[in-house]
Description:
Chain A is α/β, with parallel strands linked by helices. Chain A has helices at residues 3-10, 34-45, 62-68, 80-92, 103-109, 111-119, 147-152, 165-177, 223-236, 255-262, 280-290, 312-318, 323-334; strands at residues 30-32, 49-53, 73-75, 96-102, 126-130, 158-160, 182-185, 190-192, 208-211, 216-220, 242-246, 249-251, 267-275, 297-302. In chain B, the strands form two sheets. A five-stranded parallel β-sheet of chain B has the order 1-2-3-7-6, sandwiched between helices. A two-stranded antiparallel ribbon of chain B has the order 4-5.
Amino acid sequence: MSAATALKSTAPKLKTSAMIASFADPGQKTASAPFGHALVKAAQENDNIVGLTADLGKYTDMHIFAQAFPERFFQMGMAEQLLFGAAAGFAETGLVPFASTYSVFAARRAYDFLCLDSAEPNLNVNIVGGLPGLTTGYGPSHQATEDMAIFRGMPNLTIVDPCDSIDIEQAVPQLAASEGPTYLRLLRGNVPTVLDEYGYTFELGKAKVLRGGNDVVFISSGLMTMRALQAAKALAEHNVDVAVVHTPTIKPFDAATVLAEINTDRLAVTLENHSVIGGLFETVASAVVAAGLGKRVVPVALPDQFLDAGALPTLHERYGLSVQKIVAKVLAELG
Amino acid sequence: MTSTKEAQMTVTQETMAITTTGRVDDVSAAAYRIRHHALNMGEVQGQGYVGQALGAADMLAAVYADQLRFQAADPEWEGRDRFLLSTGHYAIGHYAALAEAGIVPVEELETYGSDDSRLPMSGMSTYTPGMEISGGSLGHGLTIAVGMALGLRYQGSEARVYNFLSDGELDEGSTWEAAMGAHHHQLGNLTAMVDINALQADGKTDTVLRTEPVTEKWESFGWYTQRVDGNNMADLLLAFDNAAAQAATVGRPSVILCDTKVGRGVPLLEEREKAHFMRIEEHEWQLCREQLTAGYEGKAKR
């Protein structure tokens, strides 16, 4: 073994622990705990808002609300079925609960308690799920790669996949004001601020064209809209002109806006921080088919498999969510 | 901590007093009418959870004819006590109780389980006035009750929350999540009532999943626990009185464990092989009603 090889093999590798749930680029503008602060602000204006969590207040930014309104915060313990059942009970008394846990537990563990206790009676219960898609390197126990696939089949449920701190800040009061149950794919901690540069405002149920482009149209949600915008800039250097359409509301889906953008000669690409099964790609694909458009749609999404543990940048590169991988895929598609 | 033994001792001392007030007779009469309604509804369907309705009729009567604060003309009245039926299939008994309470017209009961009826086979809040939650997926009721009790307390309401659950629901882990939560939050405005008929879908409870010792379980979860004969009206009322006496905005949640008999009040059904979904032949419905009435009138005369 040469000295160079030995050195290479002992070089430090990226660590999972340093990267949990942080996907901000170095030096990027961020906002701290936007969900917690937005909930406090909404609660100052709406006395009926209460906050609940299942032993994950600190990890879902709910602790900000708990500090501001201790008498309006209810700790349910590590008991997600109780969390969702109790949230329905609060709503039955006229209050507007926001209940936080991780997306994996919300979707996989306590589904029945959201479905029957809140969705069936169409109660204003707002579920906030941390670590959606691939936003942690902890492996399948924590990676909610199929949460939207699970939730999309639930009648009455609104699903929101925000891109950044702007989306979250503006979505929270609208979720509180909307009838019926909602599910917010939470981005927590230091969350990038991206959309302020695009004259953008969040409107529940609406898709927004963030930038135009003649060659390719990206349809994206969640943090992948940030990557889509970055990839669009990178592709411009290859003389590829890319439009970006952000669809933070996955259900009900703004098919009209999206189909108008897709029904062109441009290459259509969906980008999502979610399994290729049951998320944005299939939402778009079904809208395209139902409208009778004979249009190919290319997915950028997580593969249908249990993902590896590791550092987030490593995993995003491995599973095709990085800007570099998006650019390569688009260039390959364009031949 | 008031032990279950003490509570049982008070039962024997005070049963006499309650009997003499005429309350027991009044509520027993309501229970009789609830059973009668349930048989009529069962006949319309030709089947149904009649056995459970008959077994739980005394519990339902104690709640609706004696304990619950409600306004029949305004089922959504804000100050009402909430009665949450977890066991959706007991809806037949609950509809009968709602009719007895004047919330649902008696003549509407014959629509039970029919297309477009407000009274579906499994109880749902979205269909029926006075039905607070959509039950049926077992183990949900107590979790909702915890949130409701917290929400009412937070808003300064004096209303109390009752959750009716079955011993089969004690199999569900969520019931115990809620039991812990209610104690942790000191929900003195919450009363659970458990119908222990020792029977579930696949057979006797002790052959499906042993839930005993039930009393000790609830006590160890920090609840004010009483166990009574759920078909003895004097004992039931006393237990509810005890629960009401210690109810508080902040305090121990209360549970009344009620041992009941499937088919109670109709000897033909009491003696039939116990089944979750009891089959009753067409010609037997009238016989059931006659036995119910004979038993009730015989008891009333005594």
